[in-house]
Write a structure and sequence with these properties.
The protein has helices at residues 9-22, 42-54, 60-65, 68-72, and strands spanning 28-34, 78-85, 88-94. The chain is α+β, with helices and mostly antiparallel strands. A hairpin with a 2-residue loop joins β2 (78-85) and β3 (88-94).
Length: 97
């Protein structure tokens, strides 16, 4: 949890592919991480953009713009669920049986 935004984009792609490889058919991949741009409303997008400038978060800006379905669906995952609590995003995909 809360590590995917720490990875460079190429490592995120490799990790997602590895999730698919090791997950059994019918299995569920659940990701918990920071909210992304647009998740909390336009008034909070500025706060999300401020965070990597203030703290050492070199890959956070690319995380904010990442299309998660665009990363996971081409691998074969099917969208399963989405959720938000405060500034935490949950996204889940299922590997087809």
């Amino acid at each position: 949890a809360y590590v995917f935004h720490e990875l460079p984009p190429s490592a995120r792609e490799a990790a997602a592919a590895e999730f698919y490889r090791v997950l059994r058919p019918g299995g569920l991949c659940v990701l918990l991480d920071s909210a992304q741009s647009g998740d909390l409303g336009r008034d909070m997008d500025g706060t999300l953009e401020w965070f990597p400038r203030t703290f050492h978060e070199p890959y956070y800006s690319s995380w904010l713009r990442l299309d998660l379905d665009g990363l996971f669906r081409p691998l074969g995952f099917a969208s399963f669920a989405r959720g938000l609590r405060h500034v935490t995003k949950m996204a889940a995909w299922m590997k087809p049986a």
